Amino acid sequence: MLNETEGAARFFRFILLESWSFHMSYHWNWGILLSPVSTGEPTTYLGWLLSGFWVTITVSLSAWVIALIVGSFFGVLRTVPNK
């Protein structure tokens, strides 16, 4: 009969080792990132990923600046006397 600690250790060993290797048997093809894109543009898929990352950063920073300006404007309006 297993005690509580041995049973838990066996359960976590199964979860972490056996079931994980069962689900993660995919072989990643990292070379696709350096191959040219299929649209004929002079770039690679890695270039597309980096371009998308740059657009994401630019849009998020722009939204942050707009929110700061609008929030500051309405914050100042709250302090102005109602006359």
Helix content: 55-70%
Q: What is the alpha-carbon Rg in Å?
A: 27 Å
Quick check: average pLDDT? 84
Poorly predicted runs of 5 or more residues: none
Distance between the termini: 82 Å
Give a verbal description of the structure:
It is a single chain. The chain has 83 residues and is an all-alpha fold. 66% of the residues lie in helices and 0% in strands. It has two helices and no strands. The protein has helices at residues 4-23, 45-79. The longest helix has 35 residues, at 45-79. The chain starts with a helix and ends with a helix. The model has no long low-confidence stretch (mean pLDDT 84).
Sum up the structure in keywords:
about 80 residues; mainly alpha; 2 helices; about 65% helix; flat
Topology:
Elements: H1 4-23, H2 45-79
In short:
The protein has 83 residues and is mostly helical. The protein has helices spanning 4-23, 45-79. The relative contact order is 0.05.
